[in-house]
Amino acid sequence: MPRYIALLSAFLLLLSPVSQATDCAGTQISFSVARSQSVEVDRLHAKLYVEVQAGNVATINRQLNRISQQVKAAAEPYAPEVEVQTRTFSSWPVYDSKRKVIIAWRGRYGVLLKGPVADQTTRALAALQRYLTLSGITPVVSELRRRAAREALELAVLKEARKRAEAHGQALGRSEVAIQTVNLSGGEAPRPVFRAAMAKMMDAAPAPAIQAGTQDVRVSAHVQACVMR
């Protein structure tokens, strides 16, 4: 991290003082630069749930509380590496065909399992499926690994921006070019998509190993530069 900050600071100092200016005493140019990198997935997120039905809310709550305690006990041997978070714990009425009379109550209990791409997570997932149904699973890149990739890409984009600006200046027959603004974007985690197709892992004993693959991390920059007269 200190090396990253030092390099970025040096780059910004190299662009001063024109980098902070909005006016250009020459030809102003704009362009974009982007870089991407495939990062190996190192985490898994899985959604599991159960739905129950009974004649009253009290029975629903008792059933869901019992299941939640069973899930907690099943997940405990795999903590703290594998984390199980409660996402839903709710109940609602079931009406007759005319939607006037309550004929039953339904309840839902759902959790989100998070863990490393490892046999331990696979075993924890199999243990929870004794009580819950797997609705989807998605591989993700951890924030630590994503941040490292993003910082490396940002440096690469900044260096490329400088080269591109100088190339534009040379094409215009000018030797002095100053960067005015650099707007970096990207590198964020994609929104998780839980794949129901992967729910075929249910009832597998022993649980199969999970091949997570890679995700792309992309950083782009919109650059404004001034080619001096």
Automatic annotation (TrEMBL):
Any single Pfam family the record assigns to this protein: SIMPL
Keyword check for Signal: yes
Region forming the signal peptide: 1-21
Keyword Signal tagged: yes
UniProt keyword annotations, A-Z: Signal
InterPro entries membership: 26kDa_periplasmic_antigen, SIMPL/DUF541
Matching Gene3D superfamilies: Protein of unknown function (DUF541), domain 1, Protein of unknown function (DUF541), domain 2
Biological process terms in GO annotation: DNA damage response
PANTHER family: SLR1258 PROTEIN
Protein name per its UniProtKB record: Predicted secreted protein
Organism lineage: Bacteria, Pseudomonadati, Pseudomonadota, Gammaproteobacteria, Thiotrichales
